[in-house]
């Protein structure tokens, strides 16, 4: 039997480092040693002497090294419907766009996924997530297209296999031709989990069970989705408490608010995370804390759709796991997560806690370790610690936009979007000097534009 190959090492030196570990350990000048796909050691000063099989050394002078950013909520397909319904609230926005979304196909979805992933990856995202819930009849293998795009990009990825079974005829928002049957949605979700989900420590692809939202799914789909997720041992995701209209909808239809409704169906728990959670009262936050249900905070999208300001400081104080989300790019056209660090901090300071709402390090934690928590991966990503996976970013902070901000973490959160000199996923570099190494950005832009134009033509024909 052949001996296992010796680990190949990458050494990063002379960097400011924010580990985002439990103690928020930071080094003004430190090192990071990667062995294959894991972090072997990290600390202050120079790397240890005598390291074997060092294949690369990086002098990171003028850079801050952080864990890679973790996106916890997105809708990739919306990349090809950006810039539409720009002055609508959530319900009106959905009504305006559902007829177009219901005409997507595999080719469109793949191009949109590539665009969404590329925008995030070149901005420091190393773990992406997509909540895809529109599966028109005869549209092709949409889940396979999305997963294939993520694999090609080289990012770690969770597909939240979404579903809708409550259409307009049943009192929901989606058009009748845009939904699945309850049985069909559950069967297709189970098939996706069994085909693609990887439960291993260094998994690159995982699947979650993700019925869409209270106003587009039946109670049966929500309840059976929770049971399915737990039977298969995967996480669950949905939208919750996003708007005052949703609150009113739930009270009128179910006789209770969204959080109580979710709990009544089994859709709260440490294996669940919810997108938005803007309109949460004290009882709702206590229920999330008691059950360890996670939250994907999407500040830019919440502002774009005039949904409101989520009570993130109160959630964190109560012990609710909170990460950051881009949300779909039809409600956050920039499609970038690193700008959400800044927006989360600024928007939350407009709320009740004012300047004490969030600080720079709390914002960075939301975008890294907090995201790992809500995706159920805090044991292997989200902080820079020996034994964890080598997902990390080198942010350039000695240039025009940042050189006069003395504190590195303040620089990347309060300052302009920092350039990404290098981004690594699983020990492999995927970005160099703000450009993707694994795919061609110009080709992605061209193909996505063509698919956006094709979808617009089809939608116009009705």
TrEMBL record:
It is an enzyme of class 3 (hydrolase). The keyword Hydrolase applies. SUPFAM superfamilies: Composite domain of metallo-dependent hydrolases, Metallo-dependent hydrolases. Residues 64-429 form the Amidohydrolase-related domain. GO terms for molecular function: 8-oxoguanine deaminase activity. Transmembrane segments: none annotated. Keywords: Hydrolase. InterPro entries: Amidohydro-rel (IPR006680), Metal-dep_hydrolase_composite (IPR011059), Metal_Hydrolase (IPR032466), MTA/SAH_deaminase (IPR050287). Its EC number is 3.5.4.32. It comes from the Bacteria. It holds the Pfam family Amidohydro_1. This is 8-oxoguanine deaminase. The keyword Cell inner membrane does not apply.
